[in-house]
Here is the input.
Amino acid sequence: MALLMEGIRKRRSQKKKNQERFYKDPFQFARQLFQQPRSGSLSVQKEQLETHLRKTYSDPQGNLKVWCLQFMLIPKLLWPLLVYEICSNTVKAIEAKINKFTRRWLAVPPGLTDVAMYCRKAKLRLPLKSILEEYKCGKARLLSMSEDSEDPVVKTVQPTIKTGRKWKVVEALGEAKECLKIKEVIGQTQTDRKGLGSSTAKWWSKAEGKEKRDMVINEIRLNEDSRRVQKAVQ
Here is the structure.
């Protein structure tokens, strides 16, 4: 009983000290919380993913399986992929496994390229989401929100987002911003049968806040489309 009361007294004392520190200097207290090392780990095993895909509800034509994959499994996978520090190679391996089952369920040849499945510029677009593309866009959105935050504490303490060695979110974000600036210098160009001035363009210098983030994310998606086309050509 005495040990229990002693533990309660220590917790109350520590809580009171934390409250006093917060009231004295809230920014310093919050900065210390942000700088603390994050705990927790997540291990993504390809065997578990394959087992989950095999146990999906049976469907002779495979349409229901693809629907469950796109609207049930992938949204569940995206949250831990964005929260935990998982490298892009692991996500790429998961996407390769998902593509394998998707092609099997849709009864298409195994050699069908990713352009036919995920490309946004193709004439026939399938309502499929690439988990690798969503992973990259999510990481870029997280970094962009922290950089453009109006809170001085969040803006000062920049989080380190680790995504492996082959793809770095900081470099991808910088390349997307540079591409948007170059497009603004080039100006509106003719790309199809529409006449000049028939479409409006959003320029980087005139955008603010969320609009800038959306432009960056859209540019990253376009870069992913270009990467798929280059891979298909090779």
About this structure: The chain has ten helices and no strands. The mean pLDDT is 78.
